[in-house]
Amino acid sequence: MHITSPAFKKNAHRALNDAGLQKALKHARPMFTGNRARAVANLPEFEQLRDIGRDIKNHTLANLDWYLETYAANVERAGGHVHWCSTADEARAKVLEICRSVGARTVTKGKSMISEELGINEHLAKHGITPVETDLGEYILQIRDEGPSHIIAPAFHLNLEDWEKTFRAVHTDLPADRVFGDRRDILAEARTRLREKFLAADVGITGANFLIAETGSSVIVTNEGNGDLTQTLPRIHIALASIEKVVPTLEDATSLLRLLARSATGQDFSVYTTFSTGARRAADLDGPEQYHVVLIDNGRSNMMGTDFQEMLRCIRCAACMNHCPVYGATGGHAYGWVYPGPMGSVLTPTLIGVEKAGHLPNASTFCGKCESVCPVKIPLPKMMRHWREREFERHLSPASVRGGLKVWSWFAKRPAAYRLATRAMIAALGLLGRKKGAFRSLPMAGGWTEGRDLPVPEGGTFMARYAATQRGKRP
Amino acid sequence: MSKDAILGAIRRGLRRGPLPADQAAMLEGRLATHPRHLIPARSRIPRPDQIALFIRNVEKEFGTVARVDGPEAVPGAVADWLAGQNLPPRFVMAPHPDLLALPWSDRPMLTFEARRGEGSDTVSVQHGWAAVAETGTLLFPSDPTRPTTLNLLPESEIVVLRASRIVGAYEEAWDLLRAERQDAETGGFMPRNLMFVTGPSRSADIEQTLELGAHGPRRLHVVLVEDDPAAR
Fold it and tell me: Which residue intervals define the domain 4Fe-4S ferredoxin-type in the entry (chain A) (predicted)?
């Protein structure tokens, strides 16, 4: 996937002026937040489960090497194969090798963000194998040659008219004057079209929401059933999974599953939660002949023992972006790579480098909503602050920001000077704006006043008022 | 090669070498005892209420349930439901002994084939192995008598489930699986494929608005066979 994270500011500006995108965001966001709130309200134990989820993941990470080895041994015991891959290059080559081993021509795919991260589709296509995305959202994005704008609702940014237009342009064998009455007609057309693809595919590639060390199973969670058709019908099933997906037992996975759908779509449970363990048994009537797990690091092991280790708890529910005011204003494409929103602002710099993704951790108001809804309590704002510190230390931030911070820190370290300066500033602003009551624009604050007026300060500074009330309290 | 590199990097991050034997033994113990965590109170209720909770949750997720008094009433319930949905009296059925033993000849209009699912199938009758009341979830471990394709390819899926197979929480279903199943090839209790199904297939990818019938069944109907005196 082409990276445009360095151009975040330009991307965001474009997104704010994109009427279609703004319409989609306004329509969809309240659904996500409302559905989650309802699901959480219906499970009184939800807050306790968040602590449990955090603890399960922390326990696993503290013993990650052992759990991965145990998981891999149990996959092999069940007749599957595990391929350890340090880099995206290695993983792509392994997937291609497996596909070629059966002379694959088409490959169906379940929605997988790790697949986007690795660029599996581009790699297969370059080598003459046709990848077919089967999740409805991913299907239309593949046609439109766009990346996902959301990790669980990849076509978040499209409106009904976009779907209609795209389907008409691509499904040209169907009558051009057919009527799309509503969403159901779009869904029916995609179902028919993709059914042929499911039945024809030689290899099916899915992601994995969890890997279970106890049993050597991989788990996928879907609503459409496309992931299940992808992993059931072809001769080979390849599950792509990053190393932090492993959990110890079925009971551990169960507790996390209680959090996942509620945090993601606001469902109590997704329609299909499926555990795959090994390949088709001799007497089975269906299922793939081979089961492969491509186990991918791609930079994650380097997060262990750092300020960012806790990010490896993430179960990719998207609650953080669904509740983020910045994501809500710009949508996902502005972030410029696979993972948008707060989790992306933390993860993307670790995976593609802070020099490319430095804008992302700065694209936060630090309102803290992301952390408050995270099902495994990842301290996302704290980690974005770590990235800002590193960016500053490595002199990656622009001169104006560094200069401004220097001036501010000089004053911040000298309370008397700070108070004097703020008092002077407030007095000056108060004097200047006394007649109008508010400033429509201010020098050096054009970005701030573009969208709102600055009210004229009234009365003294906070410190002056605070001191006055303190004096008043003491007899 | 990569395996060593990945494990090495993890251990460097954890500032230790391979896990010492005593700690590894503790983790082995945790896997062997697979301790339960908090189980939500919603399913910790008397037996008849658990059955009612299951039905309520299936219906909440856009499935339907018909309760019948015994196995002999299943063919009639299947025929009635198909007629009610305006579907032809033909289906493909899981070759499970419990299903094959049902008195299908009582309803001579019904015809079926016992096999796996194919792309052109319209209705399947599947064997419900167990179900979880907590969220109205049906469990289908794959084996020669319970093909996975029957859960996926037909437009309508009818599940025959005995009431005694409904448990409260997922954890109880794991205990059933561990106690009842042993895979002849792997020696483990996990089947190749284990599906947890909660309602019919759906998608909200178009404008985040729910539509039923994405790639799997559009309709999910449970024929619940009363065989649990405690559940009435």
Answer: 304-335
